[in-house]
């Protein structure tokens, strides 16, 4: 999976990213200018039920048509772009290896994947991302990633069918980390070796990421997300799951610290308890925080149990940060991926983004990938090894 350096440099001042969510398709187009990063288009559109088979896009023609329509609504015709691979589809492992040359990286990744993920052999793509440097003769810290080919290829084929060249696939955790890099790149905000915790609340799952020195060190996926809340609302209101999800994501919906959700169309809003849905997810987040602290007790003072940064679609539900803060006993900070960019888009984009900025975190990381020259943090390395570089097989 390779492409020429000329292809990578052709659009270095612009970037387009697509997040193929099971419920929502999201896309962002950004440009680099003298004003900084400029968002030229941002949009989201519901995905019809049945388009996905697990993490694989089954109805590729339908999703490709949806992507083309979404781009047309924004008045854009992107020639190439990136897409993300969901955390739920990935095999991840942190390994210590002697420093690997770029020319040998793919062979070493394939060898290590056969060692640690033998069941995935032959049906997966592999890559190694170097997280820390090493002095001569010492080992370096790498993230080994294996992703199913059918998951990656189904997304690439959808982009091709929509007339967009798929140049790379990024793993979801690194997309989120890249989007948030600008928020934490100013000197003096955090001290060296501090651990930062990010929670991304998506539709079908919730991801927890821990980074240190802005390098990814810990990833866990919890199979509970906004869909579980929507199903609870649908059962209570006697409506479809899609209707319930729209209500939950609406700007007037809110949740209290005791788990009471106020939701429904204008004039018909009702309250129901969703504590039974959220409680298992919150308990698991708390358990993972404690577990990570046990791995690095000498660094436990460094913020791992003091603050959590929240993003993802469910983060837009009013009151969610207060719920998590109350239940976890930590400080919760909402992150807005657009806060470090200048928005110059049309009214359709504004309506897509309004009240759901947090859902675009990973998509923003995709779109800005080719605009970034700097590594992901002190000691971290960002290069082609962070991506699955995709081309159609001959």
Structure description:
The protein is of the alpha/beta class. It has eleven helices and 20 strands. The protein has helices at 5-10, 60-74, 105-116, 149-161, 172-181, 226-237, 241-248, 275-295, 320-328, 347-353, 361-367, and strands at 14-20, 24-33, 36-46, 52-53, 56-57, 80-85, 91-97, 124-130, 140-148, 165-171, 195-201, 206-212, 215-222, 254-255, 260-263, 270-273, 307-311, 331-334, 342-343, 387-389. Strands 19-3-2-1-6-10-20 form a seven-stranded mixed beta sheet, sandwiched between helices. A five-stranded mixed beta sheet has the order 13-12-11-17-18, with helices on both faces. α2 (60-74) crosses α4 (149-161) and α6 packs across α7. The longest helix has 21 residues, at 275-295. The model is unreliable at 1-12, 186-190 and 374-385 (pLDDT under 50).
Quick summary:
With 394 residues, the chain is an alpha/beta fold.
